[in-house]
Design a protein that fits this description.
Length: about 350
């Protein structure tokens, strides 16, 4: 018989909690192991739902410290089945989460003011997502670059913990609401507007207006065979002809590629640059701030920056901190017009 309620495994020493955030740390596996309370538990998902140590349950909950398939996690963990696969959600104190994000997103050896700026941006993004998802949501955020990178939460370096504590409760706001505090690794010398990057309506995010100059012009060159681009477009059913070359036809105000002309064996075809980056992979093509030219059977991309370039630029924040800027100075540059408020 399926258990009527979730199984809760308590571990000694669980701390009292304050503001909480729920992060989806795993999805899609059919089985997993959780170490908690001195025991190892086997979880499996299938057509009949979830089993814990061979017994059917509605969901399984564990209190930390614990390990999920060897990964150390603090706080609490809920595991449930969704369409025959496991979903694991880690619930932690928000400040502990912020510290882990800081440690995951930027090196702990960077200047303290850059880490503090990252802490406020990460907390703001998390609070905004928590509000948007609502109190009934099983998870507020994911753990990857699609939201904010969340790892090493059980062994967070001291500088990241200090950054979270020094800015505890501080959130960037526009009016009374938390802003969408986007950030990227490197803006390549000039930030992008949220409207251009995410196709938002004008005025949606006035604090992310873009074209803010920066001392960050990290360059890169990527060579991608035209055959690889052809295969990616065919797989996505965007084009079936063979790609012979690429050309940037239009750019955003910050200089990033907007529209591409794809030369194929069937003629010239239009393609959004952001779509090409999605199809090739965000790590394969670091940013849209590039020029491209064919050389033999290869498309040579020469560009700057890493990521979408919206909001805080992590390498730019580092440079500003080294030049003597405070975290408040840094945030004012990247989110002009936004206010810092202590929300809890």
């Amino acid at each position: 018989m399926r258990a009527a309620a979730a199984l809760l495994v308590f571990c000694a020493g669980a701390a009292a909690w304050s503001e909480q955030i729920r992060i989806e740390v795993a999805r899609g596996k059919r089985s997993a192991r959780v170490e908690a309370g001195g025991r190892t538990h086997a979880l499996a998902a299938g057509g009949a739902g979830l089993t814990l140590d061979g017994k059917p349950v509605a969901s399984a909950q564990f209190a930390g410290p614990l390990r999920l398939d060897g990964r150390e996690l603090p706080g609490r963990l809920e595991v449930f089945s969704d369409r025959g696969a496991l979903v694991a959600v880690n619930s932690v104190d928000l400040e502990q989460y912020v510290a882990a994000v800081v440690a995951s997103e930027v090196p702990p050896g960077w200047p303290a003011e850059a880490l503090r700026a990252q802490a406020v941006a990460a907390r703001t993004f998390a609070v905004a997502q928590k509000i948007a998802q609502g109190p009934a949501a099983r998870a507020h955020l994911g753990a990857s670059i699609l939201d904010q990178v969340y790892r090493n939460a059980a062994r967070t370096p001291r500088p990241a913990l200090d950054a979270a504590r020094a800015t505890a409760g501080e959130v960037l706001t526009w009016g009374a609401a938390p802003i969408a505090a986007y950030f990227s690794a490197s803006c390549g010398g000039r930030s992008e507007s949220a409207e251009a990057a995410f196709h938002l309506d004008p005025g949606t995010a006035p604090y992310l207006r873009g074209s803010e100059p920066d001392d960050d012009e990290r360059g890169w060159t990527v060579r991608i065979p035209l055959a690889e681009i052809t295969a990616a477009l065919r797989k996505a059913r965007r084009m079936h002809a063979e790609v012979r070359g690429l050309l940037v036809e239009s750019r955003t105000a910050s200089g990033r590629a907007l529209g591409l002309a794809v030369e194929t064996t069937a003629g010239r075809r239009p393609l959004l640059a952001v779509e090409l980056r999605q199809l090739l992979g965000y790590s394969r093509l670091p940013s849209l701030l590039f020029d491209v030219s064919p050389e033999g059977g290869v498309a040579v991309f020469r560009g700057r920056g890493s990521g979408h370039g919206v909001g805080l630029c992590q390498w730019g924040a580092r440079a500003r901190a080294l030049a003597g800027g405070t975290y408040r100075d840094i945030l004012a540059h990247y989110y002009p017009g936004a206010e810092i408020r202590r929300m809890y």
